[in-house]
Amino acid sequence: MLAGLPDHSTKREKRMLHKVQKRDAVRAAKVLASAFRHDPGWNKICEGESDIGKRFRAIFEVAVRFGLTYGEVYAPSEDLEGIIAWVPGKCADMNTWHMIRSGALVAAMRIGLNVTKKMGAAYKPVTDYRREYMALHTFRYLLVFGVPTELQGKGFGRKLIEAVIEKSDRDKLQLYVGAGSEENVKTYEHFGFRVLKQFTLPIIDLPEWEMVRDPKV
Q1: pTM for this structure?
Q2: CA neighbor of 40 nearest in space, from 215, 205, 202, 166
Q3: CA–CA separation, 54 vs 86, rounded Å?
Q4: S-S: 76 plus which of 51, 69, 156, 177, CB 3.0-4.6 Å?
Q5: Exposed/middle/buried for residue 69 (C-beta within 10 Å: 0-12, 13-18, 19+)
Q6: Beta strands across the sheet bearing 174-179
Q7: From CA 65, how far away is CA 72, in angstroms rounded?
Q8: What is the mean pLDDT of each run of 10 residues along the chain (217 residues)?
C-alpha cells in the first residue's frame, strides 16, 4: 500500500522519521494489517481461515520483529501513520533461527500451519529468484511498506519511501522490492524502480513483480 499523492514537505522534514522500537511491534503490526486488509494476495493466502484479522496481525508482527532485529523499521511519526521496514539483502529470507532470535516465533505460530504452508508454496518462485539475484548483487531489501487506506494521499507513504531511497543512494546500494499489483508497480516506477521479472504465483494464481532501483551516482 502506497501513498499516491505528493506532499509539500521540505527535504529535511521528510528525513525526520520515527524509528520504531520493539515496544511498538504489536501496534506497528496492526497498522500494516490495516494497510493490507484489502490486498488480494494476502486475502487469498488466508482464505478459508477463521479470524483473518488475527492472521494478518501475526504475519505483519513477524515482519516487523524481523525488520527490527536484522534491519530498520520506521514510521512517519510516533503516531505510526504507516510503516516501512528494510533489511540487508543477505537477510531477506527468514528461517527458524531468525524467528527465534527476533522474538517472532510466537507471532509466527499464531499465523497457523495452513497459512504458513500456503505462504511458502505461493512465494517459493520469487524467493528462489531473489536468492539467485542475491548471489550476484549486493542490495537492500524492502521487507514491508504499508499505509492504511484512510491515511493514503497525505504524504506519509512518500515520506517513508523517499527515506529508504535516500539512504540507498547514499550507501550506493540497489533497493529490491516485490510488488503485488500493477498499481504498486507504477508507483514504484515513479520512484525509479524497474521490473526485473513478473511471476504468476502458484496456489493463489496472482501476479507478482520483482523490482529493483539502482542507486543514483
Answers
A1: 0.90
A2: 205
A3: 23
A4: 156
A5: middle
A6: 18-19, 72-75, 83-88, 139-146, 174-179, 206-213, 194-201
A7: 10
A8: 36 70 97 95 94 95 96 97 96 85 91 94 96 93 96 94 96 96 94 97 97 93
